[in-house]
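Pasting as-is:
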Amino acid sequence: MTSPLRAVWLATSWLTIVPVPQPKSAPTRRDGGAALAATPVVGIGLGAALAAVAYGLSHTDLPNLLIGLLLVAIAAALTRGMHLDGLADTADGLGCFGPPERAQQVMREGSVGPFGAATLVLVIAIQATGFAALTENQHWLQLGYAVVVGRAAAVLTARASLKPFSDNGFGALVIGTQCISAALWATIAIAAGAMIDLDQPWRGPVVAAVVFVIVWFFGAHCARRFNGLSGDTLGATIEIATAATVIGLLF
Protein backbone atom coordinates (compact mmCIF):
# COMPACT_ATOMS: atom_id res chain seq x y z
CA MET A 1 0.00 0.00 0.00
CA THR A 2 1.29 3.46 -0.93
CA SER A 3 1.43 5.78 2.08
CA PRO A 4 -0.46 9.11 1.93
CA LEU A 5 2.84 10.98 2.29
CA ARG A 6 4.36 9.15 -0.69
CA ALA A 7 1.17 9.74 -2.67
CA VAL A 8 1.32 13.51 -2.13
CA TRP A 9 5.07 13.48 -2.82
CA LEU A 10 4.55 11.65 -6.12
CA ALA A 11 1.66 13.89 -7.14
CA THR A 12 3.74 16.97 -6.41
CA SER A 13 6.70 15.56 -8.33
CA TRP A 14 4.64 14.60 -11.37
CA LEU A 15 2.24 17.53 -11.58
CA THR A 16 4.26 20.57 -10.52
CA ILE A 17 7.72 22.09 -10.84
CA VAL A 18 8.28 21.90 -7.10
CA PRO A 19 11.81 20.41 -6.77
CA VAL A 20 11.01 17.35 -4.67
CA PRO A 21 13.34 14.34 -5.03
CA GLN A 22 12.39 11.86 -7.73
CA PRO A 23 11.47 8.32 -6.61
CA LYS A 24 14.36 5.86 -6.70
CA SER A 25 12.24 3.04 -8.06
CA ALA A 26 9.85 3.05 -11.00
CA PRO A 27 6.31 3.85 -9.82
CA THR A 28 3.76 1.07 -10.00
CA ARG A 29 0.10 1.34 -10.95
CA ARG A 30 -0.69 1.28 -7.24
CA ASP A 31 1.61 4.28 -6.80
CA GLY A 32 -0.04 6.00 -9.76
CA GLY A 33 -3.51 5.50 -8.34
CA ALA A 34 -2.46 6.83 -4.96
CA ALA A 35 -0.75 9.84 -6.52
CA LEU A 36 -3.80 10.71 -8.61
CA ALA A 37 -6.01 10.39 -5.53
CA ALA A 38 -3.74 13.01 -3.92
CA THR A 39 -4.03 15.40 -6.86
CA PRO A 40 -6.64 17.62 -5.17
CA VAL A 41 -4.18 18.13 -2.31
CA VAL A 42 -1.75 19.54 -4.86
CA GLY A 43 -4.66 21.60 -6.19
CA ILE A 44 -5.21 23.10 -2.74
CA GLY A 45 -1.60 24.28 -2.66
CA LEU A 46 -1.76 25.60 -6.21
CA GLY A 47 -5.10 27.31 -5.64
CA ALA A 48 -3.82 28.95 -2.47
CA ALA A 49 -0.72 30.17 -4.30
CA LEU A 50 -2.75 31.67 -7.16
CA ALA A 51 -5.18 33.31 -4.75
CA ALA A 52 -2.25 34.83 -2.84
CA VAL A 53 -0.70 36.13 -6.06
CA ALA A 54 -4.05 37.57 -7.13
CA TYR A 55 -4.39 39.29 -3.75
CA GLY A 56 -0.93 40.78 -4.07
CA LEU A 57 -1.40 41.93 -7.67
CA SER A 58 -4.76 43.49 -6.80
CA HIS A 59 -2.84 46.08 -4.80
CA THR A 60 -0.95 47.21 -7.91
CA ASP A 61 -2.10 49.37 -10.81
CA LEU A 62 -2.27 46.41 -13.19
CA PRO A 63 -5.58 45.98 -15.04
CA ASN A 64 -7.65 43.07 -13.76
CA LEU A 65 -7.60 41.34 -17.14
CA LEU A 66 -3.81 41.40 -17.14
CA ILE A 67 -3.85 39.92 -13.64
CA GLY A 68 -6.11 37.15 -14.90
CA LEU A 69 -3.76 36.40 -17.78
CA LEU A 70 -0.79 36.38 -15.42
CA LEU A 71 -2.57 33.91 -13.14
CA VAL A 72 -3.18 31.54 -16.05
CA ALA A 73 0.46 31.90 -17.10
CA ILE A 74 1.69 31.23 -13.55
CA ALA A 75 -0.55 28.17 -13.25
CA ALA A 76 0.81 26.86 -16.54
CA ALA A 77 4.39 27.49 -15.43
CA LEU A 78 3.88 25.77 -12.08
CA THR A 79 2.42 22.70 -13.81
CA ARG A 80 4.87 22.65 -16.74
CA GLY A 81 1.98 23.45 -19.08
CA MET A 82 1.13 19.75 -19.21
CA HIS A 83 -2.59 20.24 -18.65
CA LEU A 84 -2.85 22.78 -21.45
CA ASP A 85 -0.88 20.42 -23.68
CA GLY A 86 -3.31 17.64 -22.79
CA LEU A 87 -6.24 19.93 -23.58
CA ALA A 88 -4.87 20.71 -27.04
CA ASP A 89 -4.08 17.08 -27.84
CA THR A 90 -7.50 15.92 -26.66
CA ALA A 91 -9.28 18.58 -28.72
CA ASP A 92 -7.33 17.57 -31.83
CA GLY A 93 -8.13 13.92 -31.21
CA LEU A 94 -11.83 14.62 -30.76
CA GLY A 95 -11.89 16.79 -33.85
CA CYS A 96 -10.27 14.37 -36.27
CA PHE A 97 -12.03 11.85 -38.50
CA GLY A 98 -11.44 8.12 -38.42
CA PRO A 99 -11.51 5.24 -35.96
CA PRO A 100 -10.19 5.41 -32.37
CA GLU A 101 -6.74 4.32 -33.55
CA ARG A 102 -6.53 7.39 -35.79
CA ALA A 103 -7.62 9.67 -32.95
CA GLN A 104 -5.00 8.14 -30.67
CA GLN A 105 -2.34 8.74 -33.31
CA VAL A 106 -3.34 12.40 -33.65
CA MET A 107 -3.06 12.83 -29.89
CA ARG A 108 0.42 11.32 -29.85
CA GLU A 109 1.78 13.48 -32.68
CA GLY A 110 2.49 16.38 -30.34
CA SER A 111 1.85 19.20 -32.80
CA VAL A 112 -1.13 21.47 -32.17
CA GLY A 113 -3.80 21.40 -34.85
CA PRO A 114 -6.67 23.84 -35.50
CA PHE A 115 -9.04 22.23 -33.01
CA GLY A 116 -6.37 22.24 -30.31
CA ALA A 117 -5.36 25.84 -30.97
CA ALA A 118 -8.94 27.10 -30.95
CA THR A 119 -9.73 25.21 -27.75
CA LEU A 120 -6.61 26.54 -26.02
CA VAL A 121 -7.47 30.12 -26.89
CA LEU A 122 -11.07 29.71 -25.73
CA VAL A 123 -10.28 28.00 -22.41
CA ILE A 124 -7.40 30.35 -21.59
CA ALA A 125 -9.63 33.33 -22.37
CA ILE A 126 -12.39 31.99 -20.12
CA GLN A 127 -10.02 31.30 -17.25
CA ALA A 128 -8.21 34.62 -17.58
CA THR A 129 -11.35 36.76 -17.71
CA GLY A 130 -12.91 34.67 -14.95
CA PHE A 131 -9.89 35.02 -12.69
CA ALA A 132 -9.88 38.74 -13.47
CA ALA A 133 -13.52 39.07 -12.39
CA LEU A 134 -12.94 37.09 -9.21
CA THR A 135 -9.93 39.30 -8.44
CA GLU A 136 -11.93 42.45 -9.07
CA ASN A 137 -14.60 41.22 -6.66
CA GLN A 138 -11.96 40.07 -4.14
CA HIS A 139 -13.29 36.51 -4.18
CA TRP A 140 -10.02 34.84 -3.25
CA LEU A 141 -11.57 31.66 -1.88
CA GLN A 142 -13.61 31.17 -5.05
CA LEU A 143 -10.53 31.59 -7.20
CA GLY A 144 -8.65 28.90 -5.31
CA TYR A 145 -11.75 26.72 -5.19
CA ALA A 146 -11.97 26.62 -8.99
CA VAL A 147 -8.44 25.23 -9.14
CA VAL A 148 -9.21 22.53 -6.59
CA VAL A 149 -12.44 21.46 -8.34
CA GLY A 150 -10.43 21.02 -11.55
CA ARG A 151 -8.12 18.55 -9.78
CA ALA A 152 -11.01 16.71 -8.13
CA ALA A 153 -12.54 16.36 -11.59
CA ALA A 154 -9.41 14.53 -12.77
CA VAL A 155 -9.87 11.97 -10.00
CA LEU A 156 -13.45 11.43 -11.12
CA THR A 157 -12.35 10.96 -14.74
CA ALA A 158 -9.90 8.23 -13.73
CA ARG A 159 -12.75 6.22 -12.17
CA ALA A 160 -12.64 2.45 -12.10
CA SER A 161 -15.22 2.02 -14.87
CA LEU A 162 -12.89 3.53 -17.48
CA LYS A 163 -9.62 2.19 -18.89
CA PRO A 164 -6.42 3.53 -20.47
CA PHE A 165 -6.08 3.18 -24.23
CA SER A 166 -2.38 2.42 -23.96
CA ASP A 167 -0.25 0.17 -21.80
CA ASN A 168 2.41 2.88 -21.59
CA GLY A 169 2.63 6.39 -20.21
CA PHE A 170 0.98 8.29 -17.40
CA GLY A 171 -2.52 7.18 -18.34
CA ALA A 172 -1.62 3.53 -17.94
CA LEU A 173 -0.56 4.25 -14.34
CA VAL A 174 -3.69 6.11 -13.26
CA ILE A 175 -6.74 5.58 -15.49
CA GLY A 176 -9.22 3.18 -13.91
CA THR A 177 -7.61 3.30 -10.47
CA GLN A 178 -10.08 5.56 -8.67
CA CYS A 179 -13.09 4.19 -6.83
CA ILE A 180 -13.71 5.42 -3.29
CA SER A 181 -11.40 8.43 -3.81
CA ALA A 182 -13.46 9.66 -6.77
CA ALA A 183 -16.67 9.71 -4.74
CA LEU A 184 -14.86 11.06 -1.68
CA TRP A 185 -13.26 14.04 -3.42
CA ALA A 186 -16.45 14.88 -5.27
CA THR A 187 -18.32 14.89 -1.98
CA ILE A 188 -15.65 16.97 -0.24
CA ALA A 189 -15.55 19.50 -3.08
CA ILE A 190 -19.33 19.87 -3.13
CA ALA A 191 -19.50 20.27 0.64
CA ALA A 192 -16.59 22.73 0.72
CA GLY A 193 -18.36 24.86 -1.86
CA ALA A 194 -20.79 26.02 0.83
CA MET A 195 -17.92 27.78 2.60
CA ILE A 196 -16.62 29.95 -0.25
CA ASP A 197 -19.59 32.34 -0.32
CA LEU A 198 -21.42 32.64 2.99
CA ASP A 199 -23.98 35.02 1.46
CA GLN A 200 -24.96 32.38 -1.10
CA PRO A 201 -23.84 29.05 0.41
CA TRP A 202 -25.77 27.08 -2.21
CA ARG A 203 -23.77 28.44 -5.15
CA GLY A 204 -20.52 26.52 -4.66
CA PRO A 205 -22.13 23.10 -4.14
CA VAL A 206 -24.44 23.55 -7.13
CA VAL A 207 -21.59 24.67 -9.37
CA ALA A 208 -19.34 21.79 -8.30
CA ALA A 209 -22.12 19.24 -8.77
CA VAL A 210 -22.89 20.52 -12.28
CA VAL A 211 -19.19 20.53 -13.18
CA PHE A 212 -18.80 16.94 -12.01
CA VAL A 213 -21.77 15.87 -14.12
CA ILE A 214 -20.20 17.56 -17.15
CA VAL A 215 -16.87 15.88 -16.43
CA TRP A 216 -18.53 12.48 -15.98
CA PHE A 217 -20.06 12.62 -19.45
CA PHE A 218 -16.93 14.18 -20.98
CA GLY A 219 -14.82 11.31 -19.69
CA ALA A 220 -17.33 8.75 -20.97
CA HIS A 221 -17.41 10.41 -24.39
CA CYS A 222 -13.62 10.50 -24.64
CA ALA A 223 -13.45 6.84 -23.60
CA ARG A 224 -15.81 5.90 -26.44
CA ARG A 225 -14.05 8.09 -29.00
CA PHE A 226 -10.52 6.97 -28.11
CA ASN A 227 -11.37 3.47 -26.92
CA GLY A 228 -9.96 4.46 -23.54
CA LEU A 229 -8.37 7.46 -21.87
CA SER A 230 -4.87 8.87 -21.48
CA GLY A 231 -3.00 11.39 -19.40
CA ASP A 232 -3.92 14.01 -22.01
CA THR A 233 -7.62 13.55 -21.32
CA LEU A 234 -6.98 14.08 -17.61
CA GLY A 235 -5.19 17.34 -18.40
CA ALA A 236 -8.10 18.40 -20.59
CA THR A 237 -10.50 17.56 -17.80
CA ILE A 238 -8.60 19.73 -15.33
CA GLU A 239 -8.60 22.77 -17.63
CA ILE A 240 -12.23 22.38 -18.71
CA ALA A 241 -13.47 21.81 -15.16
CA THR A 242 -11.54 24.83 -13.88
CA ALA A 243 -13.01 27.03 -16.62
CA ALA A 244 -16.52 25.67 -16.05
CA THR A 245 -16.26 26.28 -12.30
CA VAL A 246 -15.19 29.87 -12.87
CA ILE A 247 -18.16 30.43 -15.19
CA GLY A 248 -20.54 28.91 -12.64
CA LEU A 249 -19.20 31.00 -9.77
CA LEU A 250 -19.68 34.19 -11.81
CA PHE A 251 -23.05 33.24 -13.31
